[in-house]
């Protein structure tokens, strides 16, 4: 299993990319999921790139951004070209986005058709660059349920379209994460792992809360201490595929939690892999 830290976890911390790379290397991670805005802010520092990160034994596993699918095709094209160029700089083929900004059930046929058209445009542009666009399973998007995610994949119907499978959010939708994985497996290129104490606290992951420095972190817990059963999930997933996953932690004590979760996840996957042989 290839585990990454997310630079978004350190969005309210005063840490340099050098510090994060050194820390990730020292704590068992193999990659960094670079938040789009962080990649853009590093664009004027040419010494930071894939080769530099490789000196730490790390790679950028994915660039995570938010393509403006609701905007004009020109604005969208410019955004895609910018992130695609950054993807080449950091040596990653995976560019993550959200499929819109509205729940699938609340999206009209006309709105959905426009988002599908825009997403297909993204795929065509990205495909020319040998890259992939990953739509994240996430509330209040067209991938907020398993049926809508499958429908979107069929509607766009492009080889560049892949899935970033957020286990907690798939569970939040009411689907069984293992069953959803089995259905979506041919399209999955990355995973997000995080956990919560109970369903009634899921609102802490709402963007307006989770991105706010003063937002609530109540209910956020380490990976193996929450309501989502990661032991069972990994017991099915880990032996089947070479997993690229990011530990997406938004709570306090970032380094302590991430280091512990990385160690526990790595040890579990090693045990599962040995037992499967």
Descriptive report:
Helix 4 packs parallel to helix 5. The chain is an alpha/beta fold and 277 residues long. Strand 5, helix 6 and strand 6 form a beta-alpha-beta unit. The two termini are 16 Å apart. 42% of the residues are buried. Helices cover 43% and strands 16% of the residues. The strands form 2 sheets. Strands 1-2-3-4-5-6-7-10 form an 8-stranded parallel beta barrel, surrounded by 4 helices. The protein has a two-stranded antiparallel sheet with strand order 8-9. The protein is built from 11 helices and 10 strands. The radius of gyration is 18 Å and the shape is globular.
How large is the share of residues in beta strands?
A: 15-25%
The mean pLDDT is: 96
Rg calc: 18 Å
Number of strands: 10
State the order of secondary-structure elements, H for helix, E for strand: EHEHHEHEHEHEHHEEHEHEH
What class would the helix/strand composition place it in?
alpha/beta
